[in-house]
Design brief:
four-stranded antiparallel sheet; alpha+beta
Length: about 290
């Protein structure tokens, strides 16, 4: 990928970094900082340091990230480190230069937590779209994943953020700081997931029936989507049945399910969520 990283790619990455950084910085400076609570990651530590010692948010993030970048250099490679440092510097600059001059919200702390989380999530998602990273815990998690990909590293992130919330109670001298921080972290993670996956999310119907071809044909007539039919056998009853699998949008699930029960009242229908659906009739992106 490094060899094909053109000036155009760099310019697009830069644009995404700038837009994402502005939105993220507004969430931190205009909502989390005046709300007196810490969000997740190194930004949360920066908020605590800013409150306790008045250390600028952006500078503290750079100081904390640089050692992690140096340690991770050999494992993650210079290309990833370069892109991460670029994103981190841009975000830190906006955090200390642009966002502080904007008006700060001084109302309900629940509103502060929700808006901080939502804006942080939107900002991060925009930067993630181009494979960017803001460093911090990403350095640690990705370094471990390189050597031990089987580990469930989501727990490490939860543990790290848990410690930040615990420290925030003592820093802000208010147990509510941890609660508001938890709301912001949850909102941020939810927004990132929804933006990164939810835009292409859909549903998948799995129908166990004796009338697979009839149901498949009816689903196509109503939704425009095809189906796959597999021949299966019940492990207990030993009965031979057909399994119809069809991907569709959320609003098409009800009529498709109704069709299945109309054609075969004894059918067994399962509805599952899918993060992304690629292919004909859906998203055709390759990346």
């Amino acid at each position: 990928m490094q060899s094909t990283y053109s000036k155009k790619d760099f310019a697009i990455d830069l644009l995404y970094d700038i837009i994402g950084s502005i939105i993220y910085s507004i969430g931190i400076n205009c909502f989390a900082k005046p709300g007196h609570f810490a969000t997740g990651g190194l930004s949360g530590i920066s908020l605590i340091l800013n409150y306790v010692a008045d250390i600028p948010l952006g500078i503290s993030q750079i100081v904390m990230n640089l050692p992690l970048a140096i340690i991770s250099f050999k494992i993650l490679g210079k290309f990833f480190i370069f892109r991460t440092i670029k994103t981190m510097v841009i975000m830190s600059a906006f955090m200390d230069i642009l966002a502080p001059i904007l008006p700060h919200y001084a109302g309900d702390k629940i509103i502060c937590a929700l808006f901080a989380g939502v804006l942080n999530g939107v900002g991060l998602a925009i930067m993630y779209f181009r494979g960017g990273s803001t460093g911090g815990l990403d350095f640690i998690i990705m370094s471990i994943r390189k050597n031990k990909p089987h580990l469930a590293l989501g727990k490490l992130s939860m543990l790290f953020n848990g410690f930040i919330l615990l420290f925030s109670v003592f820093a802000f001298k208010d147990i509510d700081a941890a609660l508001y921080g938890a709301i912001a972290i949850f909102a941020s993670g939810t927004i990132v997931d929804k933006i990164m996956n939810g835009l292409d999310a859909g549903k998948m119907l799995i129908i166990i029936t004796n009338k697979g071809h009839e149901i498949s044909s009816a689903i196509h007539d109503v939704t425009g989507h095809g189906s796959s039919i597999m021949h299966i056998q019940g492990s207990y009853s030993k009965d031979n049945k057909q399994m119809v699998i069809s991907a569709m949008s959320k609003n098409q699930v009800f009529p498709a399910r109704k069709i299945a029960y109309t054609i075969d009242p004894t059918s067994f229908v399962m509805v599952t969520s899918t993060d992304e659906v690629f292919g004909k009739g859906f998203n055709t992106q390759n990346s």
